[in-house]
Design goal:
single chain; about 350 residues; alpha+beta; three-stranded antiparallel beta sheet; 12 helices; 10 strands; globular; disordered C terminus; binds adenosine-5'-triphosphate; binds magnesium ion
């Protein structure tokens, strides 16, 4: 995979070319101080505190002037962390969210914080304000990857191209996972289609294999083929309940992209990629989906989650766990105090 392929799969590169076939979105340049805040490990305190659409008051101060560094006030008993504020950026984001109907799906240049949805109150990537977005972004390794090592796995030694980071806001759309497919394109030929959510078996996919495959192939030929800046790429599509195909995303053709029900070896070598036995599909791409015989698998993002107990403790959801935890801490403290006093040298004052 070449660095140029990574550059070309950035949202702001492909969106203007394929606007008509994808979900309505807005792109905002990410100011440097916001990038710094996202990369700062020191605080999970969330900035961008506009709780709802109308609470942002207009301000003439620029973000850099207004930015307040994280402050630690150490007065022996409490430690208070104040998140930085980005008033201008907050207003721009809120306006964009409102334009998109009030509920959005957030991304950076390539990735969405899919590994962080467990942290959101609604366990979803749906956001209504910049603070919702920050909470997800600051908890996501996928977002950190975009910011720190976008060219990982690239084979060329050329210097890294300069990246202008941007916040992508996409109108929220209820996508049914069984309608999502990932398409692998090599030398401008659609060679493979995989069910995107391979952890589940969807009956309708096996029943409609031929029509799904041919509608995706048609969509590819009519709107994508020879129009993307590279000849090797991966595109994600959605087939809605009316059978209409939509573009969701482009990804680089290589290891950074999940090959789902294929392996990268198969995709790069072309081995095993025979199209279906079904007559109608013989010239088409290889089509793979989870059949009922395959054991349903755990969600790939599960490993990014924290243990349930931690979550319950942090949200106060299970008060008994909290009480047990406090008792445990108190017991530990008492033990420590006892052993401390034993270890202390006795000073004879007489
Ligand atoms: N506008 C949207 N509204 C609601 N859900 C969405 C929207 N766009 C995408 N999704 C959901 O989020 C998932 C991930 O979206 P997307 O492919 O844009 O993220 P990504 O970070 O590029 O993922 P990957 O790393 O797999 O390429 C999609 O499979 C879809 O289920
Ligand atoms: Mg993607």
């Amino acid at each position: 995979m070449k660095k140029e392929q990574v550059v070309n799969s950035q949202f702001s590169v492909w969106y203007p070319l394929f606007k008509k076939h994808t979900i309505k979105s807005l792109i905002l340049p990410l100011p440097q101080n916001v990038i710094d805040y996202l990369l700062d490990d020191g605080t999970l305190v969330v900035s961008g505190s506009c709780e709802n659409n109308n609470q942002c008051s207009q301000t003439n101060n620029s973000d850099s002037e207004e930015e307040e560094d994280i402050q630690w006030s150490d007065d022996e008993t409490t430690t208070v962390a104040t998140a930085p504020e980005f008033p201008e950026f907050t207003i721009k984001v809120q306006e964009a969210i409102n334009t998109l109907g009030g509920r959005i799906f957030p991304k950076l240049n390539w990735s969405a914080p899919r590994d962080a949805n467990w942290i959101a109150l609604n366990s979803s990537l749906q956001c209504q304000s910049l603070s919702d977005i920050f909470l997800l972004f600051k908890s996501s390794d996928f977002i950190t990857h975009d910011l720190t090592q976008p060219f990982l796995h690239c084979s060329d030694d050329s210097p890294d191209p300069v990246i202008n980071y941007e916040l992508v806001l996409r109108k929220w759309s209820e996508l049914i996972p069984g309608g999502e497919f990932r398409c692998f394109v090599k030398e401008n030929k659609l060679i493979g289609i995989s069910q995107r959510d391979y952890t589940q078996h969807y009956q309708h996919i096996s029943k409609q294999e031929a029509s799904i495959s041919s509608s995706i192939l048609q969509f590819f030929r009519d709107h994508i083929q020879h129009q993307f800046p590279d000849e090797d790429f991966v595109l994600d599509v959605y087939r809605d309940s009316m059978g209409r195909v939509w573009l969701i995303d482009f990804n680089p053709f290589g290891e950074v992209t999940d090959s789902l029900l294929f392996t990268w070896e198969e995709l790069t070598s072309g081995n095993n990629l025979t199209a279906s036995d079904t007559e109608a599909l013989q010239d088409g791409p290889a089509f793979r989906y989870t059949t009922s015989e395959v054991t349903v698998q755990p969600s790939p993002c599960l490993s990014y989650r924290i243990p349930r107990d931690f979550l319950d403790l942090s949200t106060g959801e299970d008060s008994y766990k909290l009480i047990d935890f406090l008792k445990l801490k108190k017991g530990q403290q008492e033990e420590e105090e006892e052993s401390d006093s034993e270890a202390e040298p006795h000073v004879d004052t007489t």
